[in-house]
Amino acid sequence: DGQQIMKILCSDHKVSMSPYFMRPGFAFGGSCLPKDVRALRSIAADINVASPLLDAVLVANAEQINRAERMIHASGSTSVGMVGISFKPGTDDMRESPLAELASRLIDSGITLTVYDPFVHEAYANDMSAAGRGNDYNIDLKDRLVPTIAELLAKSDIVLVGNKYDETIEALQAAVADRLVIDLARIMPGAKSGGSYQGICW
Which residue among 5, 9, 17, 32 is the active-site one? Predict the structure, then answer.
């Protein structure tokens, strides 16, 4: 279990690092980290310094998105519910969100996508100026967003959990009994990936 291994590693508090950034899982995004990695690679190239580790970071990150997409297509489902589309929980910011990129790919492939994201939904419902912030893929989100996890489950054959929201956990755990749940946020710690409950990196 990769997450347990990293939990043990992070228990050494003599090492100055945030455990949050050491958890294996889905791809990262946002307005900072992807940009910073690209900037460091550019600086290295300018001074003719090889940066294989930095190069591999972005390749591996892109592959996580590819892997999630393959898992969804392998299910054969044409109706997918996505929990979370912002780059992290608790924000409506979709700048370089791997979930937004994944959503765009699924829509382009003909999949009917429904999205539950309380913060993005609130921004659209209240016509806030931030609504759609970072929606670089021009996803027609307003008509895909639903206000409750119950509505998402009613409209979806399978569910992909991108961000963890406490109010959804009980319903999602129950949903595993009758549909595939692809969990990128690990809402069920200790559960193994397999059968109708699948994850990445555990």
Answer: 32
